[in-house]
Amino acid sequence: MIPLEINSPTETERETTETDLLLSVRNLCKFFPVFSRGFLKKQIATIKAVDQVSFDLKRGEILGLVGESGSGKTTCARTILRALQPTAGEVLFRANGKSIDLAKVPERDLKALRTKMQMIFQDPFSSLNPRMTVGAIVGEPLTIHRLAKGSEWEDRIVEMLRKVGLKPEHRQRYPHAFSGGQRQRIGIARALIMQPSLVIADEAVSALDVSVQAQVINLLKDLQNEFNLTYIFVAHDLSVVRHVCDRVAVMYAGKIVEIAPTRDLFETPRHPYTKALISAVPNPDPDIKLDFSIGGEVADPGKLPPGCSFHPRCPECFAPCKIESPELIRTEEGRQTACHLDRPQASEELP
Hints:
Blueprint: E1 21-35, E2 43-58, E3 62-66, H1 73-80, E4 88-95, E5 98-101, H2 107-113, E6 117-120, H3 134-144, H4 150-163, H5 180-192, E7 198-202, H6 210-227, E8 230-235, H7 238-244, E9 247-252, E10 255-261, H8 262-267, H9 272-279, E11 329-332, E12 335-337, H10 346-349
Parallel strand pairs: 3-8, 3-9, 6-7, 7-8
Antiparallel strand pairs: 1-2, 1-4, 4-5, 9-10, 10-12, 11-12
Helix pairs in contact: 3-4, 3-5, 4-5, 5-6
């Protein structure tokens, strides 16, 4: 368990109003065609990397997006930011007092919205240009969007470096002179220098040493409070997600299978896949034991089984799971689950 120095987030019980929402994702899909070899190159399959994903994100919230490798969480994050073109669905982003569907915004108009949305990448080594100084890297967004120049450009870089825990003189150095944790701080400074509303942290601490992870996570939390940021925190380390996020969305084979407030999700997971993920995380409380193991590999998004994609690995599978894909439905206040076991008639259909 990482020794984080931040308090567990509290969950709000009030209803979310329209002005509270920063992002509304509706039925988002990202499919990749697979073509045969040879001259004709016929399409022989479709990889459903993201399939009918829907969720809301409130201002100032940290939403965790978790799942095994290959579950589609990174593809989902990149599709939301339009780094990948969505196949279908809506991504309603609220900026300047109006709602904008990012999925349908023309490429020429995306540049103006980039100042409101940024990403912190997983690898702090390959995400920084080794031929540019730290100052040029951090200040590049200001140059591209023509937001500052001259002394103002320099002053904003110095201020942002200080906020992420680096010295002003570091702006004259090159990335190779820094450690992994320092390079990730540089990446954070670059992402936040335009003070965006939405930041997606894509496995932002997974490439760092355990001793450095807590420092970077605490930094992200401090910056959230200072700049009123909203995060989507993509991760596979549930021990980190538990301490950082307000809510968690669990993905499997391109679909969201459960969404719940963090405390509720970890204390009473509903979906069998969520139970398996949490069971694999060491728990410091010996009185809390959850033994729910699964075998096999993540379903191939190009060859998904009929019915629920998780049913070949699910120890609680019953007849409807092999036939019908469950929809994500609200099971109680603040929770949604995509599982046939949560349907009212499920108990009558169990063998």
